[in-house]
Amino acid sequence: MPTPEIHWYPGHIAKAEKALVDQLNRVDVVLEVRDARIPLSTRHPKVETWVGEKPRVLVINRIDMISDAAKTAWEAWLRQQGETPYFTNGQQGQGVKAIAKAAQAAGEAVNQRRQARGMNPRPIRAVVIGFPNVGKSALINRLLNRKVVASARRAGITRQLRWIRLSGDLDLLDAPGVIPSRMDNQEAALKLAICDDIGEAAYDTQCTAAAFLDVLKGLEYTQSSDTYQDILRERYGVDLSDYTGEGFVEQVAAQKFQDNQERTAKRILNDFRTGLLGPWVLEWPPTK
Predict the structure, then answer these.
(1) Which uninterrupted H or E stretch holds 260?
(2) Domain boundary among 153, 174, 195
(3) Which member of 29, 92, 108, 142 lies 3.0 to 4.6 Å from 126 by CB, making a disulfide possible if both were Cys?
(4) What is the domain extent for residue 37?
(5) What is the rounded CA–CA span in Å between residue 81 and residue 97?
(6) Which CATH number characterizes residue 107's domain?
(7) Same domain, yes or no: 26 and 159
């Protein structure tokens, strides 16, 4: 089955991007948040340009939704690339304190320069950026130990930029999710749709569910430790190895959902997104 076309509209994206770039001049540290299930696909291609010489803290969120083997593999690969990843579970707070410490440490040079000029130190200013629905707001709430920003498991909750005083030493700028105005890599765009990291208007649910299953079939050969086939067979009563992704959706719809393929597709995607299918990743580190 060909990869379904994923589309979104650039107007509001451009507006959010401009507002973010305008504020970046005021920040000392950038916290870049990615989805642990798709760390490469949730890397915004403009991040390096936006950040420039500013220190950046790489946050890989939703580690509760991936296996220990995947976390180990990604940590090793990212460190080989010269990155220092911080793995977090924003919903439960795992790894969150380390982010705050990393942000303050990265911004210490700011106050060292201020002191050298005879100026008093000030709170470090950090911005939290990333694709929609990668868990930025949940992380901020955990950093504050209280709910100050709206957080939900869907894209587009944060609508505007706002500063939040985290402590006497750190100010955070919560920014709306930013995605490229166009996505030339349709495979990456598909993974964003599967993981619900873009709005529902950008994709067709049935095509995306079918493509998700085809992605899993490809991963099965490279990561035999993940028993995708067994879990799908147990949950839906259908063997994925006997069907294409599209055929699997049709078969499950016929057996369990009165031939309603739209309902079936939504159920399969939601089961994955909520972790009911297990701690799966859609991307493993490149081998080349």
Answers:
(1) none
(2) 174
(3) 29
(4) 10-174
(5) 24
(6) 3.40.50.300
(7) yes
pTM of model > 0.70: yes
Do 53 and 103 have their domain in common? yes
Residue 190 lies in a domain: no
Q: pLDDT by residue for the chain (288 residues), tens digit each? A: 455 667 655 556 677 788 788 888 888 999 999 999 999 999 988 888 888 888 999 999 999 999 998 999 999 999 999 999 999 998 888 999 899 889 888 888 888 888 899 988 888 888 888 888 888 888 888 887 766 554 444 444 445 677 887 767 888 887 777 777 666 778 888 999 999 887 777 789 999 999 999 998 887 545 544 478 889 999 999 999 899 999 999 999 999 999 999 999 999 999 999 999 988 899 999 886
What are the tokens at 25? 């001049």
163 and 213 inside one domain: no
C-alpha distances out from residue 85 to 136, 166, 182, 227, Å: 16, 22, 27, 27
